[in-house]
Hints:
19 helices
Amino acid sequence: MPPTPSQPPETTPFPSWLPPRLVQLRHDSQFFHHLGTFGYPFHLWLAALWCLLIVGPMATVELSGVAVVICFLARLPFIYRGLSDALRQPAVICLTLWCLWGWILAAADGFRPQALHELAFQRWAYAFIVLWAILDNRRILIFALCAGFAAAQGAQLLEFLGHHFNLPQLIWSHPPSPDPASRISGWWHQPAIGGVMLVACLGLHIGPALLATGRVRAIAITASLATIIALLATGTRGAWLAGAMLVIIVLLLALAVRVRAGTAKPIVLTLAAIVVLTTLAAVALEAPRKRISLLVTETREVLTRDNLDSDMGGRVLAARAALNAITQRPLKGVGPGNFHAHVTTYAQQNNLHIADFRLEKLKTAHNTFLHTAATQGLIGALLLYTAIALALIAGLFPRTTSPRPLLAAHLATYNAAPALALLGMALAGLFETTPFNTSTAALSTVLIALCAHVRPREVTKSI
């Protein structure tokens, strides 16, 4: 196998407080004692199980996470030297400041139950430290994520068969819907959340689908097409747009790194195949057509009659209320957990009519930036999005004691998949509040943990 193209190491590393050689030494110190070496496989495979189940039903996410934490605590005497490196990653520092800012605002508001409920989604931050000691085997963790998503799509397929053949035992619990067969999301209770998760899944596969070669490319293309069909089945229109934007961004990135090498033709052919098959799937499936037709109707009602009594109208109301909160309190917002009270007051003050059950759904702004800025001010939004940007950069341009791979070679493997999955989550955040839902918050945190900027070199070959 030819060596992977790489760039020479930088003379002035960033961040300067994380020299790769010292990071590697502190990570390897867990193997200085035979008990540290003995516990490593248990830690690795429990973490892989957690990554497999992180996209599963919530009970499995919580329980498997507890198992990893117990193993982490048992190995703490052997891995503690490297934990400071996990906590000093640029993205983790910004996320820590964001979490602290949220708690400061909650304290100023008297720790209301609604605030504590919203801040509880930060509990997944333990992923940053419990996964650090086994990041030299990121490949196994990424494989586990892909396998978990494949299982989730299998659950969707079974639910589709349950609707088609009238087998209720195959249908999972979901919120009431006038047409349940058009919102198939498997074990994800909320179809909208299922859509967001599947955008992240598409991010895992789209890089190798466009840039890899041989068997890896065939697997990635197949997985991408399966994910697109699963995404269409959720009926989540915002996730459809986010997935389309993700494909366009990765395509432009792939073309940028391959045009100079004169190897852009396979990328174009792959994209053409994906577009054609996606279009055929959208036409063949009745559910996407219904959802698009409903979107057109609701949008027309909002634009022509200012009718907000619909799903689309509710999102417009939430956006207006969020902008109102940002205008009134730009630095601190209305406080964590207070968005629903604010949007209710805003609707009453402006004499906006919307059904109570729709208003009850507006506990968030259905937009990550707007919700964060409305509840934690522009300071909170800046900290959160800076952390996401730093994690994306870290995932695409990692630093280890090995020479850094060229971007084209990096994107062609699954090593960059967590970064592109995180990009998908960020794009889906235009339509959902991803940090304030248990499933999306857990997955986002694990993806950021896998995107450490300065990290141990991997002991397994690239895939």
